[in-house]
Design goal:
With 142 residues, the protein is α+β, with helices and mostly antiparallel strands. It has one domain (2-127): Aminopeptidase. The chain has helices at residues 10-21, 32-44, 93-105, 120-127, and strands at 2-4, 48-54, 60-71, 74-84, 110-112. Strands 1-2-3-4-5 form a 5-stranded mixed sheet, sandwiched between helices. Helix 1 (10-21) crosses helix 2 (32-44). It is globular and about 45 Å long. The termini are far apart.
């Protein structure tokens, strides 16, 4: 079942986030309390929108969250985080999350996100209509 993400879902989302991003290919270092802060901050952002996917047993199997931003006369949507439980991947669940999020958002001129180049994630997003930005680059400091 896909439904709107709420504060009540934060702990389950944080646990799934840690499970997802500490595993290959990401191999990041996450603690549940840090993931809880991150996802909670995203949900508290003005004009935030999120959806989650739960199993029939109530297990959190995926979520997607981001927020609308005004750019001139248009709204753009920044997808901040998305993950799907390993056992639920490659079954169309991620695409379902994106579609459900799109349905709840209404019109947004562009969506954008950050992800690893040449990864399974980038291939997934490209298969769902995203493309590498032609004019934009990511800059970091230091």
């Amino acid at each position: 079942m896909i439904r709107t993400l709420t504060d009540d879902d934060l702990e389950a989302c944080a646990a799934l986030y840690v499970e997802t991003f500490t595993a290959p290919p990401w191999n990041e270092t996450w603690l549940v309390e840090d993931a809880l802060q991150r996802i909670g901050d995203f949900l508290a952002t003005p004009r935030a929108h999120g959806v989650c996917l739960t199993s029939a047993e109530g297990t959190m199997d995926g979520f997607a969250i981001g927020h609308l931003e005004r750019s001139g006369p248009d709204d753009h949507f920044l997808l901040k985080e998305m993950c799907v439980r390993e056992a639920s991947r490659r079954q169309g669940r991620g695409t379902q999350l994106l579609e459900a999020l799109s349905d709840r958002l209404g019109p947004a001129r562009h969506w954008y996100l950050l992800t690893a180049r040449d990864s399974d994630a980038s291939a997934f997003y490209e298969a769902n209509g995203f493309r590498p930005a032609g004019r934009m680059g990511v800059f970091v400091r230091p």
